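Quick start: read one record
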Amino acid sequence: MSDVEAGGATVFPYIGLKLYPEKGSAAFWYNLYRNGDGIYKTRHAACPVLVGTKWVANKWIHEEDRSLDVHVA
């Protein structure tokens, strides 16, 4: 993440958390239960940057290889 003069927070409204960007920092959270269901309370959103520029990087980590899962309807 990068430092931002104003705005740019990542908010988790269902748990009352707001993370402000800070150079060199990182955030990590699980968004799935072990059974694959989504964890609703980890829904999040990015607030607009009011002054400055925000740089971020995302890394998706998959604990199990689900590329061969077949779902039959």
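Residues 36 and 66 are 10 Å apart (CA to CA).
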